[in-house]
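Limitations
The structure tokens in this dataset are predictions for the assembled complex, not deposited experimental models. Users should treat interface geometry with appropriate caution, especially where small molecules or nucleic acid strands are included. An illustrative entry is reproduced here so readers can see what is and is not provided.
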Amino acid sequence: MVYLLPKILVAGGALMSLLATLGLPRWRNGAFWVALVLLLAAGVDAAVLWQAEGNLSLLVAGSMIADPFSSLVDLLVVAAGVSSLLLSWNGDRYGPEFPALVAVAVLGMMMVAEAGNLIWLFLGVEVLSLPLYVLAASERTALGGEAGLKYLLLGAFSSGILLFGMALLYGATGTTLFVRYPNLPLGTGFGLYGVGFLLVLVGLGFKVAMVPFHMWVPDVYEGSPTPVTNLMAFGTKVGAAAAILRLVAYGFYPQAQWWSPLIGYLAVLTMIVGNLLALPQRDLKRLLAYSGIGHAGFLLVGIAAHNFLGSMAAVFYLVPYGLAAIGAFALIRLVEGNGEGVQLDDLEGLAYAHPWAAALFIVVMLSLAGIPLTAGFIGKFYLLQAALVANQTGLAVGLVVGTLVGLAAYLRPLQRMFARSRSERVQAFRWSWAGGAVLVVAACGTLFLGVYPSPMMHIVDQSANFFWLR
Amino acid sequence: MGMNGLATVLWPPLFGAASIAALGHGVPRRWVGAWASLMVLVSFVLALGPVLALGHLPVQARAMESTLFAWVTGFGPAVHWRLFLDPLSGVWVLVITGVGFLIHVYSIGYMDGDPGEARYFAYLNFFIFAMLLLVLAGNLAVLLIGWALVGLASYFLIGFWYERPSAVAAAKKAFVMNTLGDAGILLGLVLLYLRYHALSYPALFQVFAHAQPGDPFFDWTAFLLYVGAMAKSAQFPLHMWLADAMEGPTPVSALIHAATMVTAGVYLMVRIYPLLRLAPGVEALVGDIGAFTAIFAASIAFYQQDIKKVLAYSTLSQLGYMFLGVGVGALTAGVFHFLTHAFFKALLFLAAGSVIHALGGEQDLGRMGGLGRKMPWTAGAFAVGCLAIAGIPPFSGYFSKEAILGQAFNEGHWVLWGVGVLTAGMTAFYMFRAFFLTFFGPVRDEGLYHHAHEAPAVMTVPVLLLAVLAVIGGGFGRGLDAWLAPTFHAYPGAGTAALQEGPLFSTGLTVGLAVVGGLVAYVLYGVRQVPAKAGTDRIPGRWMLAAWGMDQAWTWAVVSPLKAVGSAFESAVEPAVLDGVRAIGRTVAAWAEDLRPLESGYVRRYGLSILVGLGAILAYYLIRV
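Predicted assembly:
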């Protein structure tokens, strides 16, 4: 049961953090620290497990899959949780239960990635969603309330679809253990089985922000507090993408020829619409929301390629995207100060007022755009390679077009940063150590992976080692 | 091979550059120079370990490799970040760090009080790092990185005084010309990679060892690599940047544009000797252009009015000798001349720097004179440098130049030999001209003379140490021969690499001409006290002063046509393309605007979107099935 330890630590972090909020007022910070420390401990443990695990093992009668992939995803979502906690530093305004809810959401993200059973998957999706509904509305502003309500309504809707799909799958196969599906004589028809798969895909596509199930993303990202947006943008995306990958890699690989074109079309649509709509945005969080949609498309490219390179590239891409996203949200957190949200115009003159912050922000934005020497370029390069090796020229073209359009979107905030206006709109802000650390780590990691991706490639190579792809 | 300390040699100067760049402004200025010097000294000491360890390795395998990490993976065979040390690179490493250290120390005095002192030392340390990377590279890819980085450091340092338009122009010129060379190396290594899927020296040389000459592939790759060497080592016709590079501070000229960076081309050509064996045409070209550069640059140096220009053209000329040596197969002699040249040319530049420093920045020979009385140490050191470069025995330059010319004669390259001998006489003349104009004769500018003073000890001591090396450096020949032999025995192609004795009459003729040249200079500038400008008003002096009009020739033949093409594109093609691109941009932006209303903010619309999407997916499968 050593494998459960990261989850136990995270769950323990959530509970102890809640307990701490019940205590004396001066223990308020305790809630934050206990969650942070236990999340970090879970991350360390996941790293140790990653090294220790050679092969896949099934726990709880196949409901949980313990393999390097699970551990890697654990690490990534812990990183998302830790960065969100750090960004909430000194943020009493998010409420005392904030750290506990973040830890619960992280637990859910861990669960979806390791699920070998539909029930477990659904449980994970709900465990990750419920705290996020609350967190989205944790600031008592009009936009915050709207964000929470919209997320809740649409989340419930999509959960319904997901659950219906799972019911159909159960009806068609008689089991919820999707790891067993490849052994059943099911064919590739369009029966209950196929429809069930499509409904589950739509449910998870909602979480990963796949077009056309993406509409909630900009409103929710904009209205949520920045640390929460950070968790949604990085953590939810990692969890949902990992769940899709796991589902198709373990449950539905014999039908790859059947589902891969669909995912391919959706990937192209997602990349183009996401990046295109990022162009006219004036709010930095909305821009990043559309960027997150576009990047969901990039991730899907790797899944649609349904080869080993593709799954490797998709898993790899989670890292550059995550680093760049948390870097960008850290900058938003620094700039917004006690306010809420950052308009592009608010960035005017940032490059002169805070050259270091601007430089780090440039790094992460260029990584989102996929400029060489940043991790984003390497990630896109591997995805492109995967698409070409899979002979999916359309995917490759879509990826390139999406990147082209996205570039313009990402350069606009940078351009505003260098604009000199008579009324300097950027407020001189104080660096908080936590936000600064997140920004520095994100930018340095982005550069490091951009120059020297081999170690990460090695890790991914070991983790995305899905047997059917070899 | 794992950790054998090769990488540790690289880090101190890089760390020095980074730390000075980050913190150099907050500390007392003196510390910065001392810190930078210390970093180079540490690097020198760290380099001694592996270099000495090299001597204990068996002769057949006298090389160390250290792979830092796999760098480029995923496109076929991996390219590793690999370092490599053998006797040949060991010579360069020690010269770079050793002479580099002396020049760093000298710079503490020379740059004292300059507002950009911290920046200067950060650049200088960065240069040492880049140069070490170049010579320690274990494959052509890493070499190219070092190659480009030294070019960058050179660009920074030539343009160090960026308020001067001339310095900025010179830096730009050096960078552009060097980029031509970088492109040559890049193309060459790509060709090699495409054919052999390898870039590391041992792997490539193993292949070359079993190949036979005659394949044009070898001629092309060797030529492309030679283009890189040509640009970096300022061989004709890519030589003009070096004279302009004198805009940088004088220690920079000593370190980068005399002792180390400009010899990178020599290093590369010696390094790829197994390839030169397969490309005899290119090998001959290396020697021919080297000889021509030697005499051509010497002729230009005759009438230069600026003391640093004289030294710059003498550097060109001496580089020509080194290439001549490589071209006739006298590889050890070429390296030997690099070694002695590093000593005496650094010495000459630093001594000249002391003069310039004493005169408050004045470089015009026409305004110097009589300084020997005020600066006896510097004058003595400069005299030693002149004797060494002129090839007067027993100074160091005599031995190395003799080795090159003697071997050129032995191998039957009589024309090259003749050019080299003649150049030796010319060298003595123009160097002693500069010496007598500076230190002897009447005082030509009372004001400058009045304020002149001997340099402080921090500058004089490195100069004197270099002077000692310039005197005794010739004694290193035998040792160098034995030291480099394992490198040249490793692969075929260096059969004549070892030092040879030339015929006695060749030595007599060379030294005799040098003495005559020196005496003529003495009579003209020491006894008759002809002004510096004499002879520049008529042909050929006017042409020689103008460097034979090569700048104009380049402008006419290359720069102007390219500019014309550029303007034509700018006026004819670019507007159309730009309009097209703008139209695309507008269209895309318009689409984006059209899509925006979909995001209406109504939850019911969002839910509808999910349903419509789901319906479309199901319809897709219904139609398809």
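Some entries come with short summary sentences. For this one: Strands of chain B lie at 64-72, 79-85.
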